[in-house]
Amino acid sequence: MDDDEARTRILEAAERLYYERGYGAVGMDALRTEAGVSLRRLYGLFPAKDDIVAAVLARRREQWEDALQTKVEAAGEDRRARMLAVFDHLAEWFVDPTFRGCAFLRAWGELSGTDEQVAQIVREHKAAFQRTMVELVGEDVAGGELLAAQLSLLAEGAQSTAAIAGEPSAAAHARAAAEVLVDHAHAA
Asked: How far is Cα 110 from Cα 126, in angstroms, rounded to an integer?
């Protein structure tokens, strides 16, 4: 196996294990075993666990953004439909049997107090989502930035509620609230 394949296997294993068990609960030996690589190779590719966590979060961000963009594009050109597609994406994610909430919030909760790099990665991911919402709302909507912030909060809250309560209907509830906000903003 070459370095690219080993790196992919390590990151796939780390992503799965961190998401299932938590970042702090998974050591390098467990990653080595799950990925099927030697400890020497693991440390050769990722000198520290922080390097793996950062790489895993980068992968998660890319996956999140790609999946969200796909859902938004599938909604067509209608701005309202595109904004609400965010909540449709959440609804599909919440019924996935592997869903355990936002990997970024989990990383924040476990590591942000001791790892400034992780804290910065999480902040940037959340800021990028906010920028996406601003783009979806558009510049010509009165109070657009406020609406984008409100929609973001609904999406973030739905993620937390669905994870903690094990209740995928949080996406539908958030979507219904988003519809009210979007329709009010467009009526103004």
From this structure: 17
